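User: I'll paste a sequence; please echo it back and then give the predicted structure.

Assistant: Echoing your sequence first, then the prediction.
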Amino acid sequence: MAVSKLAKIGVLAAAVGTNCAHASEAVLTSAAQNIHVDNWSESSPAESPIKWSVKKTTLHGGKQEGVDLIEVDNGKLTFAVIPTRGMGLLRAQMGDIRLGWDSPVKEVVNPAYINLDPEAAWVG
């Protein structure tokens, strides 16, 4: 799924999860249109009783250089996905309950650094 589709889905999911009528759409990545937005965010209006947000950033530095990260918070559930890594789920949390596991790799490694040779180490 393209980043632009996820942004649309993320904003709508946040809005639906909070019974909010606010929704928007933004193209964040398009090879056809030669578009790549490094940073973008959308959130509930200030007057909304329920707060939600969707934020897209591009990570920089080390082996995470160029990795896109999308964070969605609907006021109850917060999660982050990594479109650059096949929409991998980085983290999810609902209230005090954290869902997931602790990877021994601390950075969000760009796939360009992952060695696909089965005889080699996973992260090159």
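The chain has one helix and eight strands. The chain has one domain: 3-113.
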